[in-house]
Write a structure and sequence with these properties.
With 129 residues, the protein is mainly alpha-helical. The protein has helices at 7-12, 22-47, 53-60, 63-91, 95-125. The chain has a single domain, classed as Fumarate reductase/succinate dehydrogenase, transmembrane subunit (3 helical TM bundles of succinate and fumarate reductases, Up-down Bundle). The chain has five helices and no strands.
Length: 129
C-alpha cells in the first residue's frame, strides 16, 4: 500500500494539508455538545407555546436559560460554519469560487451568530420591549 505522507508528516500524524484532524474533532465535539443544548432549546420553545411576550421575557431573563441559549447559539453557528465549509471544499471545484464561498460562509455565520447573540443578550438584560 503506497504511503502518501512525508516522513515528518508520519511522525507528526498529519496529512498533506498540514492541518491534521483538528476540524474533524471540532465538528464531532460541537455535535456532541449540541445534543443536550438542542433538546433544552426545543423544550424551552415547546414550553413557551401559547405564552404571551411578558411570560417569554420572564423565562429568558433567567440566568440559566440565558446561558444555555448563548451556548446553543455559539456552538451551533460554529458547528454550522465548519460543516458548510466542508461542503464547499468537497463540491466546489474552482479554486476562486471555493475561496469566495468559504469566506462568505464564515462571514455569514459570524454575522448571523452575532445577531442571535445580541438578541439573546437584549432579552436577558431586559432592554427588548
Amino acid at each position: 500500500m503506497p504511503v502518501f505522507k512525508s516522513p515528518m508528516g508520519r511522525v507528526r500524524g498529519r496529512g498533506s494539508a498540514k492541518a491534521g484532524t483538528e476540524t474533524f474533532w471540532h465538528q464531532r465535539l460541537t455535535a456532541l455538545a449540541l445534543v443536550p443544548l438542542a433538546v433544552t432549546f426545543a423544550g424551552l420553545m415547546i414550553s413557551l407555546v401559547g405564552a404571551d411576550y411578558a411570560s417569554a421575557l420572564r423565562v429568558m431573563r433567567s440566568p440559566l436559560v440565558s446561558v444555555a441559549m448563548l451556548m446553543f447559539v455559539l456552538v451551533g453557528f460554529y458547528h454550522m460554519s465548519i460543516g458548510l465549509a466542508h461542503v464547499v471544499e468537497d463540491y466546489v471545484h474552482s479554486e476562486a469560487g471555493k475561496i469566495f464561498l468559504i469566506v462568505a460562509v464564515k462571514l455569514g455565520c459570524l454575522g448571523l451568530g452575532l445577531a442571535c447573540l445580541l438578541s439573546v443578550l437584549k432579552l436577558s438584560f431586559g432592554s427588548a420591549l
